[in-house]
Structures are given as structure tokens and as C-alpha cells.
């Protein structure tokens, strides 16, 4: 039975975000769902930022993302492990996969994506920072859990997590 939900994942291509992606694909999405990989770039000088700074890039289907030179187009490097996980989810779980790229502060842009994309839920990885590091560095996941207007699933990992 297709559910037709829109599920987002915050993706910075760290081991923790890849772990969160694997959890998401294995436990949450199903046939008919849309999975949106949300990447927030801090490259403030990228030319596309001028066009898409407020709204983020258009939704990019997985097949198109795999084919295009996204590094040149949007300033994002392809990660073969992530693409393999998503390709498998697309084919075996019948999930429609899209990418959306924002520029700016990840905390704010992930919350913005929840609104823009009308997400039913958002999955983010947590590096498992201690209290002191979280206070000094800030925590994207902490901010998103507190401020997003949809359910947020936090997948815990450690700095040495390997998907």
C-alpha cells in the first residue's frame, strides 16, 4: 500500500549522515514515498547561489543528479556510496528520490526545507557531541529538532561511525 509521504534527509556526506540515510532507507520509506536529499552548501561564492539563494535549487531527480556535473552546476561533489544507497532504494523499495540544494546556515535551511517541501518527516544524523562541544560549536540536529514543524528523527552516531 503506497503511502505517498515526502521524507527529507539532511545530507552533509559525513559518516553520520550516511548512517542516517541507511537507517532511513531500511526503516522508514516505502513504495510511493518521495525521498528528498537536502544538502546545504556553505560555499557562499558559488554562482548558482545568486539564482537560488532564497528558495534553494529546483528538485533534481536522482537519475538527473547522477548524470549532471553537479560539482560545476551546484558546487556539490557526488558521493558514490550515497548514490548507490539511493539507487538501490529507488529500484527495490520503489521510492522516488530527489535532491535539493540550499546555500547558507544548515540549521536554518533544513528548517526552511521542511516548509518549502511540505515534509512529513525529516531525518538527520547526530555526531554525538558532548555537552561542552555542543554548546561551543552549536548543534544542527539540536536546532532542527527544536524548530522544525514536522517530526524529526535523529539517528545517533559517533565521530568514528562508518556506514
Task: Write up what this structure looks like.
The chain has helices spanning 15-27, 47-52, 62-67, 70-74, 80-92, 106-117, 131-137, 140-147; strands spanning 6-10, 34-41, 60-61, 96-103, 121-126, 152-156. It has 163 residues and is of the alpha/beta class. Helix 1 links the parallel strand 1 (6-10) and strand 2 (34-41). Helix 6 (106-117) runs parallel beside helix 8. The chain starts with 5 loop residues before the first strand and ends in a 7-residue tail after the last strand.
Blueprint (SSEs and pairs):
Elements: E1 6-10, H1 15-27, E2 34-41, H2 47-52, E3 60-61, H3 62-67, H4 70-74, H5 80-92, E4 96-103, H6 106-117, E5 121-126, H7 131-137, H8 140-147, E6 152-156
Parallel strand pairs: 1-2, 1-5, 2-4, 5-6
Antiparallel strand pairs: 3-4
